[in-house]
Specification:
Four Helix Bundle (Hemerythrin (Met), subunit A); two-stranded antiparallel ribbon; alpha/beta; single chain; 14% strand
Length: 322
């Protein structure tokens, strides 16, 4: 289907640059568990059926909700499928997947897109609870920025956990980028202030800030993030600022809950879904983008610094269902 509701879905119009870089294969591998599970259940649902009736749609609803796509998103998908599947031969599982991919792509294309960043220097504030893959995601962002020709500096503002700064320093050495850190318990705002001063002195144009992830003490976390933002706004008023949230794909719907809580604490400009290489819960990306109206930016599909895939709705839908 080349076009639905005015949205061009042809391969030429939707093919992302990652399709030619090998990351497409990593994305498909990362979504392999979700894809296999959904494919098997879809095939079982349509075995021997000749029409797409309400009983079939109810089973499909259970399958998709079980894939962590989210209830609201599944309802929208099925509403669109009803319109597109008139006269559909229920036994044609390939055609069914094509229709589902098209409908999911439409929903995701309608979700918010990230605000564009210009060519100037950027401060990236990275938030997320401990254990979601935040440090590795920061390393991936740094690697990506270096590939774009930027000079990167990391700020270890998670001073609550001593291991956080150590892990970030290890990545900084591996990627050969600068890092600013202080001792455990240091004021995160002071770390950020020093990092911004160092960035100017060293000619860096990309500062990536790690933050503590103590969501269970929301009041303290909110104050800390607000203070960091004030430091950035004062010390780097001429820099662009974006806040990225990292969530763990392996936690399924809990990732949606975390995203919802952080969105209440601080404005979120984009989401990174980490650990997509080892889970059958890849559909949660759809729920975050569609139900919470948060822009999905990147998908973590491996442990390497280069294993960060830019999120493209059509590509994602095809890897998940196609």
């Amino acid at each position: 289907m080349a076009e639905l509701d005015g949205i061009d879905l042809t391969p030429e119009a939707t093919a992302p640059e990652s399709a030619s870089s090998g990351l497409w294969r990593k994305l498909k591998r990362g979504l392999g568990m979700t894809h296999t599970e959904l494919a098997e259940k879809l095939s079982a649902a349509w075995s021997g059926r000749t029409v797409l009736d309400e009983e079939s749609l109810e089973y499909l609803e259970e399958v998709l909700i079980g894939g962590d796509l989210g209830v609201e998103t599944v309802m929208e998908l099925l509403d669109g499928l009803r319109e597109q599947a008139r006269g559909f031969a229920g036994g044609d599982i390939v055609r069914l997947r094509e229709l589902l991919v098209d409908q999911m792509a439409i929903l995701l294309l309608d979700a918010p897109r990230p605000k564009p960043l210009g060519d100037g220097p950027v401060v990236t504030l990275v938030v997320g609870v401990n254990g979601v893959g935040k440090t590795t995601s920061i390393a991936k962002l740094a690697w990506r920025a270096r590939q774009e020709g930027r000079r990167v500096l990391l700020a270890a503002a998670d001073t609550f956990r001593a291991a956080a700064a150590e892990q970030l320093a290890t990545w900084a050495e591996r990627l050969q980028v600068d890092i600013v850190r202080q001792g455990p318990g240091a004021d995160p705002g002071a770390v950020v202030f020093d990092a911004l001063a160092a960035a100017r002195a060293r000619g860096a144009d990309q500062v990536i800030i790690d933050t503590a992830g103590r969501l269970h003490t929301k009041g303290h976390l909110m104050e800390e993030l607000a203070k960091i933002r004030r430091v950035v706004e004062r010390s780097a008023a001429d820099w662009q600022l974006q806040t990225l949230l990292v969530v763990d794909a392996t936690t399924g719907q809990n990732a949606v809950s975390q995203a919802r809580e952080f969105d209440r604490i601080t404005p979120i400009d984009g989401v990174i879904l980490a650990k997509l290489d080892g889970t059958a819960k890849g559909g949660v990306a759809v729920a975050i983008a569609r139900e919470l109206r948060l822009p999905m930016l990147y998908l973590g599909v491996g442990e390497g610094a280069e294993d960060l895939v830019a999120f493209h709705p059509r590509e994602f839908a095809a890897a998940l269902l196609g």
